[in-house]
Every structure is written in structure tokens, then in C-alpha cells.
Design goal:
Length: 207
């Protein structure tokens, strides 16, 4: 009886922590070791997964499903939320690269089959659920821009290959909030020379 009560206590602690994180969150089982002994934590996570409260999406990787309010169904985890959880687990930073940044900024409807992320951590390729994730180690300078400015840098690099960077800059000037434009102004020193006039145009520093 005491064992069952202890197991329920561990599960209740984990569930409370999951709920605080909110729906749509992705997390590793090791993040709950403060709730009890490793085996008790593993069993509690397994029970919550069997009940459908959380979903296992990888080795010791779980998801607290978001819900579609209109249709009532549970949504799958996003590739970005999985990538962020992996980055947190490895104590590293990530930045969506190329076509993925363009998509996240609303500049493209193209969603690449392989999601590529720049990182200050180790390079690796992973398949998690339906997603192919590629983490590519780059220099600190490539990831130095703050906030969403990094997305803009990567999107402009992507469109430059097709000579579409200027058109993308015009769209971003209209769509980006003032906060991100300020980030671009502060991050000019990290941009390659060819990109700086475009960033100034987006930020409103150049007519």
C-alpha cells in the first residue's frame, strides 16, 4: 500500500510539472528525476503515456499534446519544439537555417523534408517521429544575432541564392514588429557586408 502511494506521489509530481509547462511542450524523462527515484520516474512516465496524458515521441522523449480547439483532436509535436528540447538537453543553442527560417518568418510555404538547425553544440543527424533533424555546428558569430534577428539573417542567406533577398527584405520591412527591427539594428556587426544594406532597409534605417 505504501509503495502504491509512493508511486502515485511521483506521478502526481510529474503531472503537475508537465501541466505547468503547458500543452505543446516536449521534454526528456531525465528532467523529472527530482520527483523520485529513476525507476519510479520511468514507471510514472510510462503510466502517463499509457493513459494518453503524454505521448512518447523518442527514446525517453515525451510530448504533452496540444489540442485543436475547433476539431477537438490532439496535435502532433512540432519539429521546432523537439529540436529545442534536444538543444536544452545538450546545453546548446540552435537556430533554424535556410528554408526553415524563411518558412517560420512567413516568407515561404515550403517546409523542408529535413529540418536543418545551426548549433553551437555537436553536429548530428536524428530521426524523431516523422521528422528528420540535422544539427550543424557553426562558429559563434553565425549565431550571435539576438532573438528573431537570427531568423532574418538565415532567411536572407537562403533567398540570396535565387536573387530573391531584396524582395524578401521588402516583405520583412512590412511584417516584422519594431522589437525585431531593433534587434536587426543592434546585430548589424554580425552580418556579412552584402547583407547589411538589406538589414538597414528592413529596420527602417535606410530609405
Amino acid at each position: 500500500m505504501k509503495l502504491a502511494a509512493a508511486q502515485k506521489s511521483v506521478m502526481d509530481k510529474i503531472l503537475a510539472k508537465v501541466i505547468r509547462r503547458g500543452r505543446g511542450s516536449v521534454f526528456f524523462g531525465v528532467e523529472f528525476l527530482d520527483a523520485g527515484k529513476p525507476e519510479a520516474v520511468r514507471q510514472a512516465l510510462s503510466r502517463l503515456a499509457r493513459k494518453g496524458t503524454i505521448k512518447r515521441v523518442g527514446i525517453s522523449l515525451y510530448y504533452y499534446p496540444a489540442v485543436n480547439d475547433k476539431l477537438g483532436g490532439k496535435l502532433p509535436p512540432s519539429a521546432n519544439s523537439i529540436a529545442e528540447a534536444i538543444a536544452q538537453r545538450t546545453n546548446s543553442r540552435i537556430l533554424p537555417a535556410g528554408a526553415l527560417s524563411a518558412n517560420l518568418l512567413g516568407l515561404s510555404t515550403q517546409v523542408p523534408a529535413k529540418r536543418i538547425y545551426l548549433t553551437n553544440g555537436p553536429s548530428r543527424n536524428m530521426t524523431v517521429g516523422p521528422y528528420e533533424l540535422s544539427f550543424r555546428h557553426v562558429s559563434p558569430r553565425r549565431m550571435a544575432a539576438k532573438g528573431d534577428a537570427g531568423l532574418v539573417f538565415e532567411a536572407l542567406r537562403f533567398f540570396r541564392r535565387g536573387n530573391g533577398a531584396e524582395a524578401a527584405a521588402l516583405r520583412l520591412r512590412k511584417s516584422l514588429p519594431a522589437e525585431v527591427k531593433a534587434q536587426l539594428s543592434h546585430g548589424l556587426g554580425y552580418a556579412p557586408i552584402w547583407m547589411r544594406p538589406l538589414l538597414e532597409q528592413i529596420a527602417g534605417n535606410k530609405k
